[in-house]
Amino acid sequence: MTTVSLGMPAVPPRGFGNISELEPFPKYAERELGNAQQRRNLTHATHTIRDKRLKVVSELPDWEDLRDAGSAIKSEAMDRLPKLLAQFEEQFTARGGTVHWARDAAEANRIVEELIRAAGPNKDGELDVVKVKSMATQEIGLNEYLEERGIPAYETDLAELIVQLGHDKPSHILVPAIHKNRTEIRDIFLREMPDVDPDLTDDPRRLAMAARAHLRRKFLSARVAISGANFGIAETGTLGVVESEGNGRMCVTLPETLITVMGIEKVLPRGEDLGVFMQLLPRSSTGERMNPYTSLWTGATPGDGPQDVHVVLLDNGRTRALADRHGRSALHCIRCSACMNVCPVYERAGGHAYGSTYPGPIGAILSPLLTGIEAEENKSLPYASSLCGACFDACPVKINIPEILVHLRGEDVEARRSRPGARRLPSQFDLAMTGASWAMADGARMGLLERGLPLGKIAAGRDGVISKLPGIGAGWTQSRDIPAPPAESFRQQWAKREKNPNKKNPAEGEAK
Ligand code: SF4
Protein backbone atom coordinates (compact mmCIF):
# COMPACT_ATOMS: atom_id res chain seq x y z
CA MET A 1 0.00 0.00 0.00
CA THR A 2 1.21 3.49 -0.82
CA THR A 3 0.80 5.99 1.99
CA VAL A 4 -0.09 9.63 1.57
CA SER A 5 2.51 12.08 2.79
CA LEU A 6 1.07 14.97 4.77
CA GLY A 7 4.22 17.06 4.69
CA MET A 8 4.05 20.28 2.69
CA PRO A 9 6.86 20.45 0.14
CA ALA A 10 9.21 23.38 0.69
CA VAL A 11 9.16 24.13 -3.03
CA PRO A 12 5.80 23.47 -4.65
CA PRO A 13 6.01 20.83 -7.36
CA ARG A 14 5.15 22.06 -10.84
CA GLY A 15 3.08 20.24 -13.40
CA PHE A 16 -0.29 20.72 -11.72
CA GLY A 17 -2.16 20.64 -15.01
CA ASN A 18 -4.90 23.23 -15.51
CA ILE A 19 -5.06 24.71 -12.01
CA SER A 20 -3.27 27.91 -12.87
CA GLU A 21 -2.61 29.82 -16.06
CA LEU A 22 0.07 32.42 -16.34
CA GLU A 23 -2.16 35.42 -16.98
CA PRO A 24 -3.22 37.05 -13.69
CA PHE A 25 -6.89 37.67 -12.83
CA PRO A 26 -7.01 41.50 -13.23
CA LYS A 27 -5.69 41.39 -16.80
CA TYR A 28 -7.92 38.54 -17.87
CA ALA A 29 -10.97 40.04 -16.11
CA GLU A 30 -10.47 43.41 -17.76
CA ARG A 31 -10.62 41.79 -21.18
CA GLU A 32 -13.61 39.61 -20.28
CA LEU A 33 -15.52 42.62 -18.96
CA GLY A 34 -15.60 43.94 -22.51
CA ASN A 35 -17.61 40.91 -23.66
CA ALA A 36 -21.16 42.22 -23.26
CA GLN A 37 -22.81 39.09 -24.72
CA GLN A 38 -21.02 36.88 -22.22
CA ARG A 39 -22.09 39.10 -19.34
CA ARG A 40 -25.72 38.92 -20.45
CA ASN A 41 -25.51 35.11 -20.77
CA LEU A 42 -23.91 34.82 -17.34
CA THR A 43 -26.37 37.11 -15.58
CA HIS A 44 -29.32 35.25 -17.07
CA ALA A 45 -27.95 31.78 -16.27
CA THR A 46 -26.64 32.45 -12.75
CA HIS A 47 -29.84 34.24 -11.69
CA THR A 48 -31.99 31.38 -13.00
CA ILE A 49 -30.04 28.73 -11.08
CA ARG A 50 -29.79 30.94 -8.02
CA ASP A 51 -33.60 31.41 -7.86
CA LYS A 52 -34.21 27.68 -8.30
CA ARG A 53 -31.77 26.94 -5.49
CA LEU A 54 -33.41 29.38 -3.10
CA LYS A 55 -36.81 27.84 -3.77
CA VAL A 56 -35.82 24.23 -3.03
CA VAL A 57 -33.59 25.15 -0.10
CA SER A 58 -36.43 27.05 1.58
CA GLU A 59 -38.53 23.87 1.49
CA LEU A 60 -36.27 22.19 4.04
CA PRO A 61 -36.75 23.42 7.62
CA ASP A 62 -33.56 21.59 8.65
CA TRP A 63 -31.36 23.07 5.90
CA GLU A 64 -28.98 24.70 8.40
CA ASP A 65 -28.69 21.42 10.32
CA LEU A 66 -27.86 19.64 7.06
CA ARG A 67 -25.15 22.20 6.32
CA ASP A 68 -23.70 21.66 9.80
CA ALA A 69 -23.79 17.89 9.29
CA GLY A 70 -22.10 18.17 5.87
CA SER A 71 -19.40 20.39 7.33
CA ALA A 72 -18.82 18.02 10.28
CA ILE A 73 -18.53 14.94 8.04
CA LYS A 74 -16.03 16.69 5.79
CA SER A 75 -13.96 17.87 8.80
CA GLU A 76 -13.89 14.33 10.09
CA ALA A 77 -12.84 13.02 6.66
CA MET A 78 -9.97 15.52 6.47
CA ASP A 79 -8.82 14.71 10.03
CA ARG A 80 -8.76 10.97 9.27
CA LEU A 81 -7.74 11.20 5.62
CA PRO A 82 -4.73 8.80 5.55
CA LYS A 83 -6.67 6.10 7.43
CA LEU A 84 -9.80 6.53 5.32
CA LEU A 85 -7.82 6.32 2.08
CA ALA A 86 -6.10 3.15 3.24
CA GLN A 87 -9.51 1.70 4.15
CA PHE A 88 -10.92 2.71 0.77
CA GLU A 89 -8.02 1.04 -1.02
CA GLU A 90 -8.45 -2.17 0.94
CA GLN A 91 -12.19 -2.37 0.27
CA PHE A 92 -11.98 -1.39 -3.41
CA THR A 93 -9.23 -3.94 -4.04
CA ALA A 94 -11.08 -6.68 -2.15
CA ARG A 95 -14.02 -6.19 -4.54
CA GLY A 96 -12.00 -6.63 -7.69
CA GLY A 97 -10.91 -3.04 -8.42
CA THR A 98 -7.38 -1.69 -8.77
CA VAL A 99 -6.16 1.41 -6.92
CA HIS A 100 -3.42 3.69 -8.32
CA TRP A 101 -1.87 6.66 -6.51
CA ALA A 102 -0.84 9.82 -8.32
CA ARG A 103 1.22 12.58 -6.71
CA ASP A 104 0.50 15.11 -9.42
CA ALA A 105 -1.10 15.71 -12.80
CA ALA A 106 1.80 14.25 -14.76
CA GLU A 107 1.70 11.00 -12.82
CA ALA A 108 -2.09 10.68 -13.07
CA ASN A 109 -2.06 11.30 -16.83
CA ARG A 110 0.65 8.73 -17.35
CA ILE A 111 -1.23 6.08 -15.35
CA VAL A 112 -4.44 6.68 -17.32
CA GLU A 113 -2.62 6.50 -20.66
CA GLU A 114 -1.03 3.17 -19.71
CA LEU A 115 -4.40 1.74 -18.71
CA ILE A 116 -6.01 2.84 -21.97
CA ARG A 117 -3.22 1.29 -24.03
CA ALA A 118 -3.48 -1.93 -22.01
CA ALA A 119 -7.24 -2.09 -22.71
CA GLY A 120 -6.63 -1.80 -26.44
CA PRO A 121 -8.63 -0.33 -29.33
CA ASN A 122 -12.43 -0.05 -29.50
CA LYS A 123 -14.82 -2.09 -31.67
CA ASP A 124 -13.91 0.03 -34.70
CA GLY A 125 -10.21 -0.57 -34.16
CA GLU A 126 -9.50 2.90 -32.75
CA LEU A 127 -7.85 3.83 -29.48
CA ASP A 128 -10.22 6.33 -27.84
CA VAL A 129 -12.23 6.91 -24.65
CA VAL A 130 -15.62 8.31 -23.63
CA LYS A 131 -15.73 10.59 -20.60
CA VAL A 132 -18.14 11.56 -17.85
CA LYS A 133 -17.88 15.21 -16.85
CA SER A 134 -15.08 15.38 -14.29
CA MET A 135 -13.35 18.29 -12.58
CA ALA A 136 -10.38 16.12 -11.57
CA THR A 137 -9.58 15.15 -15.17
CA GLN A 138 -9.97 18.77 -16.27
CA GLU A 139 -7.64 19.77 -13.48
CA ILE A 140 -4.90 17.43 -14.69
CA GLY A 141 -5.44 18.37 -18.35
CA LEU A 142 -6.15 14.76 -19.29
CA ASN A 143 -7.93 15.48 -22.59
CA GLU A 144 -5.06 17.59 -23.88
CA TYR A 145 -2.52 15.02 -22.69
CA LEU A 146 -4.30 12.15 -24.44
CA GLU A 147 -4.92 14.16 -27.59
CA GLU A 148 -1.19 14.90 -27.88
CA ARG A 149 -0.62 11.14 -27.83
CA GLY A 150 -3.23 10.36 -30.48
CA ILE A 151 -6.02 9.20 -28.12
CA PRO A 152 -9.24 11.20 -28.57
CA ALA A 153 -11.24 11.65 -25.34
CA TYR A 154 -14.92 12.29 -26.13
CA GLU A 155 -16.81 14.35 -23.56
CA THR A 156 -20.36 13.03 -23.20
CA ASP A 157 -21.93 15.64 -20.91
CA LEU A 158 -23.82 18.06 -23.17
CA ALA A 159 -22.22 21.23 -21.87
CA GLU A 160 -18.74 19.69 -21.88
CA LEU A 161 -19.38 18.51 -25.43
CA ILE A 162 -20.27 22.08 -26.46
CA VAL A 163 -17.06 23.37 -24.90
CA GLN A 164 -14.99 20.63 -26.50
CA LEU A 165 -16.48 21.05 -29.97
CA GLY A 166 -16.10 24.83 -29.66
CA HIS A 167 -12.36 24.43 -28.85
CA ASP A 168 -13.16 26.47 -25.77
CA LYS A 169 -12.59 26.15 -22.04
CA PRO A 170 -15.20 25.54 -19.33
CA SER A 171 -16.12 28.69 -17.40
CA HIS A 172 -18.28 27.19 -14.65
CA ILE A 173 -18.01 24.03 -12.54
CA LEU A 174 -21.53 22.84 -13.15
CA VAL A 175 -22.49 24.56 -16.40
CA PRO A 176 -19.22 24.65 -18.35
CA ALA A 177 -20.82 26.36 -21.36
CA ILE A 178 -22.67 28.95 -19.27
CA HIS A 179 -21.05 31.70 -21.33
CA LYS A 180 -22.66 30.44 -24.55
CA ASN A 181 -26.24 31.04 -25.66
CA ARG A 182 -28.40 28.76 -27.82
CA THR A 183 -27.54 30.39 -31.11
CA GLU A 184 -23.83 30.14 -30.44
CA ILE A 185 -24.30 26.45 -29.57
CA ARG A 186 -26.19 25.76 -32.80
CA ASP A 187 -23.41 27.37 -34.78
CA ILE A 188 -20.83 25.15 -33.05
CA PHE A 189 -22.84 22.00 -33.80
CA LEU A 190 -23.29 22.98 -37.46
CA ARG A 191 -19.57 23.59 -37.76
CA GLU A 192 -18.22 20.59 -35.82
CA MET A 193 -20.66 17.66 -36.01
CA PRO A 194 -20.05 15.67 -39.19
CA ASP A 195 -23.58 14.28 -39.76
CA VAL A 196 -25.66 17.07 -38.26
CA ASP A 197 -28.89 18.23 -39.95
CA PRO A 198 -27.93 21.43 -41.87
CA ASP A 199 -31.36 22.90 -40.98
CA LEU A 200 -30.66 22.56 -37.23
CA THR A 201 -32.36 25.36 -35.28
CA ASP A 202 -31.52 26.74 -31.84
CA ASP A 203 -34.53 25.00 -30.29
CA PRO A 204 -33.09 23.33 -27.11
CA ARG A 205 -34.84 20.02 -27.88
CA ARG A 206 -33.39 19.84 -31.38
CA LEU A 207 -29.94 20.73 -30.07
CA ALA A 208 -30.18 17.98 -27.46
CA MET A 209 -31.30 15.45 -30.10
CA ALA A 210 -28.37 16.35 -32.33
CA ALA A 211 -25.94 15.83 -29.44
CA ARG A 212 -27.64 12.56 -28.53
CA ALA A 213 -27.25 11.11 -32.02
CA HIS A 214 -23.62 12.25 -32.14
CA LEU A 215 -22.79 10.66 -28.77
CA ARG A 216 -24.72 7.41 -29.17
CA ARG A 217 -22.20 6.15 -31.71
CA LYS A 218 -19.34 6.85 -29.31
CA PHE A 219 -21.02 5.08 -26.38
CA LEU A 220 -21.66 1.95 -28.40
CA SER A 221 -18.14 1.58 -29.72
CA ALA A 222 -16.04 2.65 -26.72
CA ARG A 223 -13.95 0.11 -24.87
CA VAL A 224 -12.76 2.49 -22.15
CA ALA A 225 -14.63 5.12 -20.12
CA ILE A 226 -13.13 7.72 -17.81
CA SER A 227 -15.00 9.32 -14.95
CA GLY A 228 -14.42 11.44 -11.91
CA ALA A 229 -16.19 10.72 -8.63
CA ASN A 230 -18.35 12.88 -6.40
CA PHE A 231 -17.74 10.56 -3.47
CA GLY A 232 -15.65 7.55 -2.50
CA ILE A 233 -16.94 5.59 0.50
CA ALA A 234 -14.11 4.27 2.66
CA GLU A 235 -16.27 1.75 4.50
CA THR A 236 -17.18 -0.22 1.36
CA GLY A 237 -14.80 0.99 -1.38
CA THR A 238 -17.77 2.40 -3.33
CA LEU A 239 -17.47 5.19 -5.90
CA GLY A 240 -20.32 7.49 -6.83
CA VAL A 241 -21.17 9.88 -9.66
CA VAL A 242 -24.22 12.15 -9.68
CA GLU A 243 -25.42 13.68 -12.95
CA SER A 244 -28.45 14.85 -14.85
CA GLU A 245 -28.29 13.49 -18.38
CA GLY A 246 -27.72 9.74 -18.12
CA ASN A 247 -24.46 9.99 -20.05
CA GLY A 248 -22.60 9.15 -16.85
CA ARG A 249 -24.67 6.03 -16.35
CA MET A 250 -23.87 4.95 -19.93
CA CYS A 251 -20.14 5.52 -19.37
CA VAL A 252 -19.92 3.65 -16.09
CA THR A 253 -21.91 0.64 -17.33
CA LEU A 254 -21.29 0.08 -21.08
CA PRO A 255 -17.50 -0.06 -21.69
CA GLU A 256 -15.32 -2.96 -20.59
CA THR A 257 -12.79 -0.80 -18.75
CA LEU A 258 -13.67 2.00 -16.35
CA ILE A 259 -11.02 4.38 -15.03
CA THR A 260 -11.98 6.87 -12.33
CA VAL A 261 -9.78 9.80 -11.35
CA MET A 262 -10.71 11.01 -7.86
CA GLY A 263 -9.18 13.72 -5.72
CA ILE A 264 -8.19 12.23 -2.37
CA GLU A 265 -10.41 14.72 -0.52
CA LYS A 266 -13.56 13.12 -1.99
CA VAL A 267 -13.44 10.20 0.42
CA LEU A 268 -16.26 9.91 2.97
CA PRO A 269 -16.11 7.66 6.01
CA ARG A 270 -19.45 5.84 5.74
CA GLY A 271 -22.19 4.96 3.26
CA GLU A 272 -24.78 6.66 5.47
CA ASP A 273 -22.97 9.99 4.96
CA LEU A 274 -24.47 10.03 1.47
CA GLY A 275 -27.83 10.67 3.14
CA VAL A 276 -26.61 14.18 3.98
CA PHE A 277 -24.78 14.95 0.74
CA MET A 278 -27.52 13.66 -1.55
CA GLN A 279 -29.76 16.34 -0.03
CA LEU A 280 -27.17 19.11 -0.03
CA LEU A 281 -25.65 18.63 -3.47
CA PRO A 282 -28.58 18.62 -5.95
CA ARG A 283 -30.35 21.48 -4.17
CA SER A 284 -27.19 23.60 -4.15
CA SER A 285 -26.03 22.81 -7.66
CA THR A 286 -28.95 22.44 -10.07
CA GLY A 287 -31.69 23.60 -7.71
CA GLU A 288 -33.33 20.17 -7.83
CA ARG A 289 -34.65 18.11 -4.93
CA MET A 290 -32.93 15.03 -6.35
CA ASN A 291 -30.49 14.64 -9.18
CA PRO A 292 -31.81 12.44 -11.98
CA TYR A 293 -28.98 9.86 -12.05
CA THR A 294 -26.92 8.55 -9.15
CA SER A 295 -24.50 5.76 -10.11
CA LEU A 296 -22.69 3.85 -7.37
CA TRP A 297 -20.26 1.01 -8.05
CA THR A 298 -18.08 -1.12 -5.84
CA GLY A 299 -15.17 -2.78 -7.61
CA ALA A 300 -16.13 -5.11 -10.48
CA THR A 301 -19.22 -7.34 -10.56
CA PRO A 302 -18.83 -10.50 -12.69
CA GLY A 303 -21.12 -10.37 -15.72
CA ASP A 304 -22.43 -6.89 -14.95
CA GLY A 305 -20.85 -3.68 -16.19
CA PRO A 306 -17.13 -2.99 -16.67
CA GLN A 307 -14.96 -5.94 -15.67
CA ASP A 308 -11.71 -3.99 -15.47
CA VAL A 309 -12.23 -1.24 -12.89
CA HIS A 310 -9.57 1.24 -11.75
CA VAL A 311 -9.39 4.32 -9.56
CA VAL A 312 -6.54 6.84 -9.62
CA LEU A 313 -6.34 8.63 -6.27
CA LEU A 314 -5.03 12.10 -7.01
CA ASP A 315 -3.08 14.38 -4.69
CA ASN A 316 -1.93 17.24 -6.98
CA GLY A 317 -1.51 19.77 -4.17
CA ARG A 318 -4.22 18.49 -1.85
CA THR A 319 -1.86 17.42 0.93
CA ARG A 320 -0.32 20.87 0.65
CA ALA A 321 -3.76 22.45 1.16
CA LEU A 322 -4.46 20.05 4.01
CA ALA A 323 -1.34 21.25 5.79
CA ASP A 324 -2.67 24.84 5.82
CA ARG A 325 -4.72 24.94 9.00
CA HIS A 326 -6.58 28.10 7.95
CA GLY A 327 -7.25 27.00 4.41
CA ARG A 328 -7.77 23.26 4.66
CA SER A 329 -11.56 23.56 4.83
CA ALA A 330 -11.44 24.50 1.13
CA LEU A 331 -11.00 20.74 0.62
CA HIS A 332 -14.55 20.25 1.95
CA CYS A 333 -15.86 21.58 -1.36
CA ILE A 334 -18.38 19.29 -3.07
CA ARG A 335 -18.20 21.28 -6.36
CA CYS A 336 -21.83 22.34 -6.31
CA SER A 337 -21.06 25.80 -7.78
CA ALA A 338 -23.56 27.66 -5.55
CA CYS A 339 -20.81 30.11 -4.54
CA MET A 340 -20.15 31.23 -8.11
CA ASN A 341 -23.83 31.65 -8.90
CA VAL A 342 -24.15 34.27 -6.14
CA CYS A 343 -20.80 35.98 -6.60
CA PRO A 344 -20.95 39.54 -8.01
CA VAL A 345 -17.34 39.30 -9.21
CA TYR A 346 -17.88 36.00 -11.05
CA GLU A 347 -21.09 37.33 -12.61
CA ARG A 348 -19.20 40.18 -14.22
CA ALA A 349 -15.77 38.74 -14.91
CA GLY A 350 -16.86 35.23 -15.94
CA GLY A 351 -15.11 31.95 -15.19
CA HIS A 352 -12.21 32.16 -17.66
CA ALA A 353 -10.78 35.18 -15.83
CA TYR A 354 -9.75 32.96 -12.90
CA GLY A 355 -7.35 31.13 -15.23
CA SER A 356 -8.09 27.78 -13.60
CA THR A 357 -10.28 24.71 -13.74
CA TYR A 358 -11.73 26.13 -10.53
CA PRO A 359 -13.33 29.54 -11.08
CA GLY A 360 -15.36 31.79 -8.81
CA PRO A 361 -14.97 32.17 -5.03
CA ILE A 362 -13.89 28.56 -4.46
CA GLY A 363 -11.32 28.88 -7.26
CA ALA A 364 -9.95 32.06 -5.70
CA ILE A 365 -8.98 30.07 -2.61
CA LEU A 366 -8.49 26.56 -3.96
CA SER A 367 -6.00 27.35 -6.73
CA PRO A 368 -3.57 29.20 -4.40
CA LEU A 369 -3.98 26.53 -1.70
CA LEU A 370 -3.22 23.72 -4.15
CA THR A 371 -0.35 25.32 -5.99
CA GLY A 372 0.94 27.98 -3.57
CA ILE A 373 0.20 31.68 -3.08
CA GLU A 374 3.80 32.46 -4.03
CA ALA A 375 3.14 31.27 -7.60
CA GLU A 376 2.95 34.46 -9.69
CA GLU A 377 -0.36 33.53 -11.33
CA ASN A 378 -2.09 32.97 -7.95
CA LYS A 379 -1.18 36.20 -6.20
CA SER A 380 -4.09 38.26 -7.44
CA LEU A 381 -6.77 35.58 -6.93
CA PRO A 382 -7.50 36.24 -3.22
CA TYR A 383 -8.22 39.86 -4.16
CA ALA A 384 -10.85 38.85 -6.75
CA SER A 385 -13.60 39.33 -4.21
CA SER A 386 -15.61 42.09 -2.58
CA LEU A 387 -15.76 39.95 0.62
CA CYS A 388 -19.54 40.40 0.62
CA GLY A 389 -19.97 36.92 2.13
CA ALA A 390 -22.67 35.67 -0.28
CA CYS A 391 -20.52 32.62 -1.08
CA PHE A 392 -20.31 31.64 2.59
CA ASP A 393 -24.08 31.93 2.99
CA ALA A 394 -24.69 29.77 -0.08
CA CYS A 395 -22.08 27.07 0.58
CA PRO A 396 -23.77 23.79 1.57
CA VAL A 397 -20.74 22.68 3.61
CA LYS A 398 -20.19 26.10 5.20
CA ILE A 399 -16.73 26.84 3.86
CA ASN A 400 -15.89 30.30 5.18
CA ILE A 401 -14.51 31.53 1.86
CA PRO A 402 -14.18 35.22 2.87
CA GLU A 403 -12.12 34.27 5.93
CA ILE A 404 -9.79 32.13 3.81
CA LEU A 405 -9.50 34.92 1.23
CA VAL A 406 -8.36 37.32 3.96
CA HIS A 407 -5.91 34.71 5.26
CA LEU A 408 -4.44 34.27 1.77
CA ARG A 409 -4.21 38.03 1.28
CA GLY A 410 -2.23 38.16 4.51
CA GLU A 411 0.07 35.41 3.26
CA ASP A 412 0.59 37.28 0.00
CA VAL A 413 1.48 40.52 1.83
CA GLU A 414 3.88 38.67 4.14
CA ALA A 415 5.50 36.88 1.19
CA ARG A 416 6.02 40.19 -0.61
CA ARG A 417 7.48 41.86 2.48
CA SER A 418 9.91 39.04 3.20
CA ARG A 419 11.15 38.72 -0.39
CA PRO A 420 14.89 39.52 -0.69
CA GLY A 421 15.29 43.13 -1.72
CA ALA A 422 11.71 44.04 -0.73
CA ARG A 423 11.47 47.70 0.18
CA ARG A 424 11.29 48.33 3.88
CA LEU A 425 9.25 51.53 3.71
CA PRO A 426 5.45 51.13 3.90
CA SER A 427 3.63 51.64 0.60
CA GLN A 428 0.88 54.19 0.00
CA PHE A 429 -1.62 51.34 0.37
CA ASP A 430 -0.10 50.19 3.69
CA LEU A 431 -0.33 53.74 5.06
CA ALA A 432 -3.92 54.18 3.92
CA MET A 433 -4.97 50.83 5.42
CA THR A 434 -3.17 51.51 8.71
CA GLY A 435 -4.86 54.91 8.93
CA ALA A 436 -8.28 53.48 8.10
CA SER A 437 -7.85 50.68 10.61
CA TRP A 438 -6.86 53.16 13.34
CA ALA A 439 -9.85 55.43 12.63
CA MET A 440 -12.43 52.68 12.22
CA ALA A 441 -11.43 50.91 15.44
CA ASP A 442 -12.88 53.72 17.57
CA GLY A 443 -16.23 55.56 17.25
CA ALA A 444 -14.86 58.88 18.49
CA ARG A 445 -11.97 58.83 15.97
CA MET A 446 -14.34 57.90 13.17
CA GLY A 447 -16.64 60.81 14.10
CA LEU A 448 -13.69 63.18 14.10
CA LEU A 449 -12.61 61.96 10.67
CA GLU A 450 -16.10 62.37 9.23
CA ARG A 451 -16.33 65.91 10.51
CA GLY A 452 -13.06 66.66 8.75
CA LEU A 453 -14.20 65.23 5.41
CA PRO A 454 -15.87 67.70 3.03
CA LEU A 455 -18.81 65.36 2.37
CA GLY A 456 -21.21 68.17 1.56
CA LYS A 457 -18.90 69.61 -1.08
CA ILE A 458 -18.23 66.21 -2.67
CA ALA A 459 -21.95 65.41 -2.84
CA ALA A 460 -22.90 68.80 -4.24
CA GLY A 461 -20.12 69.05 -6.77
CA ARG A 462 -20.23 65.62 -8.43
CA ASP A 463 -23.70 65.38 -9.82
CA GLY A 464 -24.49 62.31 -7.72
CA VAL A 465 -21.50 60.26 -8.90
CA ILE A 466 -17.72 60.25 -8.65
CA SER A 467 -16.11 59.21 -11.93
CA LYS A 468 -12.45 59.41 -11.00
CA LEU A 469 -10.70 58.94 -7.68
CA PRO A 470 -7.07 59.99 -7.23
CA GLY A 471 -4.07 57.93 -6.05
CA ILE A 472 -4.64 54.44 -4.68
CA GLY A 473 -8.42 54.94 -5.03
CA ALA A 474 -8.10 55.14 -8.84
CA GLY A 475 -8.76 51.41 -9.28
CA TRP A 476 -12.24 51.82 -7.82
CA THR A 477 -13.31 54.13 -10.62
CA GLN A 478 -11.39 52.44 -13.43
CA SER A 479 -14.48 50.77 -14.86
CA ARG A 480 -17.40 52.31 -12.97
CA ASP A 481 -18.72 55.44 -11.26
CA ILE A 482 -19.14 55.57 -7.48
CA PRO A 483 -22.23 57.18 -5.93
CA ALA A 484 -21.22 60.40 -4.20
CA PRO A 485 -21.53 60.22 -0.40
CA PRO A 486 -24.46 61.98 1.28
CA ALA A 487 -23.85 65.54 2.48
CA GLU A 488 -23.87 64.31 6.08
CA SER A 489 -22.69 60.96 7.43
CA PHE A 490 -25.08 58.63 9.21
CA ARG A 491 -23.46 59.55 12.50
CA GLN A 492 -24.05 63.27 11.88
CA GLN A 493 -27.63 62.69 10.78
CA TRP A 494 -28.29 60.54 13.83
CA ALA A 495 -26.86 63.13 16.22
CA LYS A 496 -29.17 65.81 14.74
CA ARG A 497 -32.14 63.53 14.96
CA GLU A 498 -31.43 62.74 18.60
CA LYS A 499 -31.26 66.44 19.37
CA ASN A 500 -34.52 67.24 17.67
CA PRO A 501 -36.57 64.08 16.98
CA ASN A 502 -39.53 65.99 15.44
CA LYS A 503 -37.55 67.88 12.84
CA LYS A 504 -36.97 66.12 9.53
CA ASN A 505 -33.31 66.14 8.57
CA PRO A 506 -32.94 67.46 4.99
CA ALA A 507 -29.98 65.12 4.42
CA GLU A 508 -32.09 62.02 5.14
CA GLY A 509 -32.86 59.90 2.13
CA GLU A 510 -29.98 61.20 0.06
CA ALA A 511 -27.81 58.18 0.43
CA LYS A 512 -28.83 55.44 -1.94
S1 SF4 B 1 -17.17 26.21 -2.05
FE1 SF4 B 1 -19.16 25.53 -1.28
S2 SF4 B 1 -20.61 26.62 -2.60
FE2 SF4 B 1 -18.63 26.71 -3.68
S3 SF4 B 1 -18.61 24.97 -5.05
FE3 SF4 B 1 -17.65 24.30 -3.13
S4 SF4 B 1 -19.29 23.40 -1.91
FE4 SF4 B 1 -20.26 24.59 -3.52
Task: Enumerate how many helices there are, as a single number.
Answer: 22
CATH topology of the largest domain: Rossmann fold
Determine the oligomeric state from the structure: single chain
Strand order of the largest sheet: 1-10-7-4-2-3
Number of strands: 12
- CATH superfamily caption of the largest domain: NagB/RpiA/CoA transferase-like
Distinct small-molecule ligands in the complex: iron/sulfur cluster
Unreliable stretches? 1-14
In the CATH hierarchy, the architecture of the largest domain is 3-Layer(aba) Sandwich
Helix content: 40-55%
Tell me the distance between the termini.
63 Å
CATH class bucket of the largest domain = Alpha Beta
Could you say how many structural domains there are in total?
Answer: 2
**SSE class:** alpha/beta
The largest sheet is:
6 strands, parallel
Mean pLDDT: 89
- Can you tell me the overall shape? globular
Strand proportion, as a percent range, falls in: 5-15%
Task: Calculate Rg over CA atoms.
Answer: 26 Å
